[in-house]
């Protein structure tokens, strides 16, 4: 959980690989331009030299407003906090559509190879910028060993209708002659795909195939900021909150499943991971007919505070001088202070704070997850990885304290698992996500068992 301007951004290191989604646009292929390749390469050089004024001078008017010099500096410095110091440019490639061309500049950082995706308009101005895992990253992992291909089948499923409809996949248990329980998967922050792909890993695919193998249907879909990123940027970004980003689509998906053949309409669950877990109680409030909620690594503390905690953790891993690290931490603390000072009068204010509009922060502040979860009466399953440095055991303790005397709540802590609920040893680091892994089978077993034994409440 860390990234993006149209989503939650710097909350989790995995999204350090998806910075500046506020300027993300979706374009396909056109003829390459050597001039633009050179321009993109020079732009990256300006970032390396910390000539952010020079970088901004290459932007079109929309980009200059969305990513002024101070914000561009913050993006680049935070990127290096997450991926390690920049080392060199490796290669370039070009894609495009119509009047736009995209140059991918593969950059080698100490801990990861990332593509700087630089979008040029017809006037050769930069109209979009974001960082994504390099296509040279490891191939996605093979199917998890607990997923049995003959135990389920998949079909296309569109969530919603009209301009915000989302392509998805419904995974159904095979050979079942009765309606089954189903779970809707809600992504972490950032413009995630339906598999919640993080470098070499696909945790939502693992969950879908693993749970369906055990008799539970699973719906996963492209996140709105993934499928409609360009359209969101073209709307009034100051009005964007997590409701539009995540909550509305999860509620729509659950409602559609109730009308889907083969699904038990009284046994629809929602599983939220990371940001999805944080907002799961709000989804439960919006749809009180859900059979239950599953919260995986959901934060209970203010997200800006987690950003500071994560930055301190990453700095403690080394790779930067203490002086450089402290300077970057001081800049972050100054921005966090601005977030803390926001008032209701700032809700529609233009501009961005830590890459999201002020109204986004105010909405999160107004809807405390612990207050929301206390209002719910549905069964709850709350899961936490012990090696997770992005959402930690302190957040897990927050859920436990808030729900201490509440019946119908199950807590599970997995000491060896990270933020993706994949096993590892020692301190978790950003580089861990580059290695193929799978959601632990014990997590699949626990979720499936809990769903199958949870009786409908309506």
How does the SSE layout of this entry go?
Layout: H1 34-48, H2 52-56, H3 61-66, H4 69-83, E1 86-97, E2 100-109, E3 113-120, E4 126-133, E5 152-159, E6 166-173, E7 180-186, H5 203-213, E8 217-221, H6 224-227, H7 229-234, H8 242-258, E9 263-273, H9 275-278, H10 280-286, E10 292-296, H11 303-316, H12 322-340, H13 358-366, H14 369-374, E11 380-385, H15 393-402, E12 409-414, H16 441-453
Parallel strand pairs: 7-8, 7-9, 9-10, 10-11, 11-12
Antiparallel strand pairs: 1-2, 2-3, 3-4, 5-6, 6-8
Helix pairs in contact: 4-12, 8-10, 11-12
Produce a short descriptive summary:
With 458 residues, the protein is of the alpha/beta class. The chain is built from 16 helices and twelve strands.
């Amino acid at each position: 959980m860390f990234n993006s301007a149209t989503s939650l951004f710097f909350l989790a290191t995995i999204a350090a690989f998806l910075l500046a989604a506020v300027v993300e646009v979706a374009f396909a292929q056109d003829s390459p331009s050597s001039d633009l390749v050179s321009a993109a390469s020079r732009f990256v050089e300006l970032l390396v030299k910390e000539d952010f004024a020079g970088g901004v001078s290459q932007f079109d008017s929309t980009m200059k407003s969305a990513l002024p010099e101070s914000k561009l500096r913050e993006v680049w410095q935070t990127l290096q906090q997450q991926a390690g110091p920049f080392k060199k440019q490796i290669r370039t490639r070009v894609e495009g559509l119509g009047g736009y061309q995209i140059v991918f500049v593969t950059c080698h950082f100490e801990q990861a190879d990332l593509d700087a995706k630089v979008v040029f308009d017809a006037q050769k101005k930069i109209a979009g910028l974001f960082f994504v895992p390099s296509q040279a990253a490891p191939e996605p992992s093979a199917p998890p060993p607990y997923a049995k291909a003959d135990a389920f089948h998949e079909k296309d499923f569109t969530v919603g209708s009209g301009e915000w409809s989302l392509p998805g996949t419904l995974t159904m248990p095979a050979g079942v002659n009765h309606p089954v329980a189903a779970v809707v998967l809600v992504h972490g922050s950032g413009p995630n795909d339906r598999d919640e792909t993080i470098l070499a890993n696909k945790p939502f695919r693992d969950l879908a195939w693993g749970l369906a193998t055990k008799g539970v249907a699973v719906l996963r879909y492209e996140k709105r900021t993934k499928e409609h990123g360009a359209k969101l940027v073209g709307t009034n970004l100051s009005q964007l909150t997590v409701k539009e980003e995540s909550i509305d689509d999860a509620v729509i998906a659950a409602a559609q499943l109730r009308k889907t053949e083969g699904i038990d309409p009284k046994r629809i669950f929602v599983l939220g991971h990371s940001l999805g877990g944080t907002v799961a109680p709000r989804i439960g409030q919006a749809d009180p007919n859900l059979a239950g909620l599953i919260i995986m690594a959901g934060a209970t503390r203010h997200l800006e505070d987690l950003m500071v905690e994560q930055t301190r953790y990453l700095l403690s891993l080394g790779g930067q001088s203490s002086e450089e690290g402290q300077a970057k931490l001081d800049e972050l603390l100054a921005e966090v202070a601005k977030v803390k000072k926001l008032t209701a009068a700032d809700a529609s204010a233009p501009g961005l704070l830590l890459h999201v509009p002020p109204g986004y922060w105010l909405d999160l502040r107004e809807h405390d997850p612990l207050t929301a979860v206390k209002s719910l009466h549905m069964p709850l399953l709350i899961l936490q990885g012990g090696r997770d440095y992005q959402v930690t055991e302190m957040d897990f303790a927050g859920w436990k304290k808030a729900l201490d005397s509440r019946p119908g709540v199950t807590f599970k802590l997995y000491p060896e698992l990270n933020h993706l609920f994949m096993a590892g040893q020692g301190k978790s680091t950003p580089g861990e996500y580059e290695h193929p892994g799978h959601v632990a089978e014990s997590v699949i077993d626990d979720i499936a068992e809990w769903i199958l034994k949870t009786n409908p409440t309506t």
